[in-house]
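Hey, can you fold this one?
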Amino acid sequence: MRLREILSTYFKGDKVVWGVIIALSVFSLLAVYSSTGTLAYKYQEGNTLYYIMKHFILLLFGIGIIFVTHLVPYKYYSRLSQLLLYMSIFMLAITLVLGTSLNQATRWLTLPGLGLTIQTSDFAKLALIMYLARALSLRQDKVDDFNGFVVTLVLPVVVVCGLIMPANLSTALILFVTSFVLMFIGRVKLKYLFIIGFIGIMIIALVITGIVVSGKKGRVATWQNRIENFISGESEENFQAEQSKIAIASGGIFGKGPGNSTQRNFLPHPYSDFIYAIIIEEYGFIGGVVVLFLYLFLLFRAGVIVRKATRTFAAFLSIGLAFGLTFQALINMGVAASVFPVTGQTLPLVSMGGSSILFTGFAFGIILSVSRSIEEESKQQANAEIDKNDNEIDNEKK
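Sure. Predicted structure:
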């Protein structure tokens, strides 16, 4: 009973969302340990715990971020959203010029003085969704203002996605779709949404044309090869997808059991991009369905939060962040199952990765902050109603 009181005192907000976080964290520890054991033995002088301990510390730090973030009233995130958007645009621009390159993609930025390397697109995703939630909540009485729609909503989406796209097309597309869905939920007119969709397609075409004309075809060639390999299905040129399918097929209904994966020795990035394939191989179809439903249940609970919300910013913020996390998870799972071409998207809170876990923690924490505030408002209203009834009874007695 004592433990339950402590948990209810300090861990507030939607208990189901907390359950999803804990379940995903457990899957993360099990899958990362299994998928990195051989790698650690080979490159860390036999220390098979090297990568899992590193991941465990990052995961604890991410959960710490969730805890701290969920205690902050969500109204403060509205005030921070504009500043964070400007910071993200600046950081994305700096990353394109001075960022660290890997596989012909410049996605990482080393923070001066801290020595930390982050993927700036993770920060930008969070900042843009927060900004859109604020902008949409403030424009509910101005949905017919086209000029305001372009300046306030379209321009930030175009700038952020445009800066992300040269190095990370899949992240830019995921963020663009998330923004599109959030605008639809925010009652933006369909004709305006068609316009922003058209603008997005034109920008993609212009960026690709610009890269080709400039002679820097590295990333365009990568996109083209991935799509061609996905369509052709040739095993020699589609090695990652083939190994992933083997892992999934060999998992069966109940899987091989924890730590018994064989494809981790052949599958590139089994701890990040293809961790879902390792989960299915070891925990079977049942394990894969459980992970899938955890993300879908997160989206469902965000819908419950929206239904209870009394303020539009709270509703847009929670559903926007939850949709973004769920959509990214579905893309990652789709890649593992060869439904989509290889994208390089991680499985939120499950895959090994620094900035991904940290910013996913912020997203979960903000969702919990909204639900916590809604619960407190409901309690205050209930107490006020009780006090009102008590006063009426006292007046009648007098």
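The beta strands are 100-102, 105-110, 117-119. Let me know if you want another pass with a different chain boundary.
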